[in-house]
Structure formats: structure tokens, C-alpha cells
Amino acid sequence: MKWLRISSALAGIAACSLVLAQVAPHARQAGAILAAQDDPAALSELKLDEALAHNDRLVQDNIEAALRAGDADLADSFVALARDRNIALPDDVLSRVSDAVKIENSTSHFAKRFASGLVTGNADDVASLSGTVAGDLFVIGDIRDVVREGKHLAMGEDTDRLVLGLATAGLAVTAVTYVSAGGAAPVRAGLTLVKDARKVGRLGEGLAAWAGRSAREVVDAPMLQNAVAKGSVFRPGETVSAIKAAFRVEKAGALVRLGKDVTRVAEKSGTRGAMESLRIAEGPKDVARAARLAEAQGGKTRAIMKVLGRGALLLVGGAFDLTLWLFGAALTLFGLISSIKATTERLTQAWCDRKRARRLRRAQIAAEAALASAVPTA
């Protein structure tokens, strides 16, 4: 029975050690992810490690897909990621990416996209954003959007209140930009990007809902309707003054911060990186996280967001599963320690019992010898 108890304790050590060896790597990864959940840069690195471990062709496959889609910027972002991770890429892939980037950055392509952004007000790269910002800085774009949406509002038609609010805010910020000699230009560019993302359907649902509420707060609807009714694109000075009067500056803080964060993303990861962050964001905090990620990862940001989605910004779901890995590891470790303790105690008890038995046998032998020597011989 004694040796059976010792054997069961040793079996417990073996079983717990085996389970712990399987659980420990997952628990270590879970602990690292939970610890990094408030740091987008560190969190994205850990999740990238996991994604690349499961698919060693992840980077190359995404480059090929980006090239097929004509997105040289995204392909170049994945090349930057491969370079940072020391992932070898075939020379022909690198050559194709380089050629695509050169074409996209060519003077003719830039001029075409600039004109498109200036005329249509839609941006998806640096050139077209330059056009849209130029249009908005000269108030053409914002007046166009305010007049169009304002008339829809006045006539009771479907109105995009978010575009209306952003355009109204943009006109006010543009005035500040002129007064401050460009000091508010980053906010102006960020608001333009948010507005363009809304127009082309690249604004996350949660962020769109938040921005819509914020836009309503900064616009005096009756005053704006009156300004739009009397305004015209052909009388920009008079129209801007009337529209600015409907803008509540004191309630624009949240939109201004959003514009700054979007610009921070665009400065580090490019215009398309900023648009991607707006697509996956569910609120202004996500955009602020995207700005921190872009400042840490630079040109790799767009590739990271493509692979991880919103998971690049924060811990999306899975927190319970991660906690279970840690709990399982802790429970297994407790079982291992308990088994070691039980084994030690039982071995010690067995040794003590054996030593006590030896002492009793020696004492018995000594007593028998003494008794024998005390008996007189015949």
C-alpha cells in the first residue's frame, strides 16, 4: 500500500509535467498578449508572430493579391514587413513591386489622381488626397458638400448628416488654417479624409455612428438651412460666412481630435493606411490606437492592418480563452507542485518508517542478547 501511494504520486508528477509542457507555451503567449492589450504596437507584433507561424507564405500571398488588385502601396507595405521580419522574397516579386510603385508614383499618375480628387472630392491615395485637401482649403469642396446636403435637409430628402457636419466643421477649420498660416492644416486634412471615407463607404459603422452624433452637435440645423437657402458655390465668401455662423466651435473638440489622429496615421502609413484605419475603427479610441500603431510601425502599418484587421488595434474577443490558458497553466502547475510535495512526504515517511524499523530490530536483537547473557549456564 505504501509503495502504491508513492507510485501514484510519481504518476501525478509525470502527468502534470507532460500537461504543463503542452500548456506552458500557450499560457506564455496568452500572458504576453494580455499584458500588451493596451499597446497596439506590441500587441500587433505578438499577433503577427502567431499569424506567420501558422502560414509561412502569408506575406508573399498578400503581395501577389495586392499586385493583382493594382494596389502597389499595399504590396510595398508587405515588402517592408518582410524586410523587417527577415522574410526572404523572390527577386521577381520584389522587381514587380518596385515597378508598380514607380508607376503609381509617376508624375502623370499623380497629376491624374490629383485632378480626380480636386474635382470629385474623393481620395484614396496621396495624390487624390492632395486634390481633395486643395479643394477644401479653397472652400470649393466643403461648400459643394454643404450646399448639396443642406438642400437635401431643407427639402426633407435623405441627408448624409455626417458629411454635412464634417463639411461645416471643415469650413470653420479652413478659416483657422488661413489665420494661423497653415497651423490647422493637419486637422483640415484629417477631416477631409474622414469625409471621403464616408463618401466611398470606407468608414466603420461604429465610427460613422459616433461621428454622426458629433457632427449633429456642432451644427445649428435651422441656421444652416437658412445659410444654404441663400448660399451658392458662386458666392463663396458670402456663403462661407453664413455657414460658419451655424458652426458651434465649443462642441467641435472631439471631431478636431479625430482629425488630428487621422492625420497622424496618414503621415506615417500613407493615405490608404489612414483610410484602412477608418474602415476598421469602431470609435475615436480605435483611431487614436491606429495613430500609435502607425507611429511605431511606419510603412508596415497597412500590411499589419490587412492581416490582423481590428485585432491590430486592440484585443478583440478571445480574452476569456486567453485567461483560460493562464488558469489551466496555473492549475497544472499547482497539481505538479502538489504531486512533488506528496511524493516528497511519502518518500520521507517511508524512509522514516524504515529507519524506525531498523532501530526496533537492533533494540530487539540487543535485548535478546542481554537476556541470553543473563541466563546462567548449567
Task: Walk me through what this model shows.
79% of the residues lie in helices and 0% in strands. Helix 3 runs antiparallel to helix 4 and helix 14 runs parallel beside helix 16. It is elongated. It is mainly alpha-helical and 378 residues long. About 3% of the residues have low confidence. The protein folds into two domains: 98 residues; 215 residues, no CATH class. It is built from 18 helices and no strands. Keywords: Membrane, Signal, Transmembrane, Transmembrane helix.
Oligomeric grouping of the chains: single chain
Number of helical regions: 18
Uncertain stretches: 175-184
Number of strands: 0
Q: How many separate domains make up the residues?
A: 2
Strand content: under 5%
C-alpha Rg (nearest Å): 35 Å
Distance between the amino and carboxyl termini: 49 Å
- Give the rounded overall mean pLDDT: 74
For the biggest sheet, the summary is:
none
User: Helical amount among residues, as a percent range?
Assistant: over 70%
User: Can you tell me the overall shape?
Assistant: elongated
Class by SSE composition: mainly alpha
String of helices and strands: HHHHHHHHHHHHHHHHHH
Keywords: Membrane, Signal, Transmembrane, Transmembrane helix
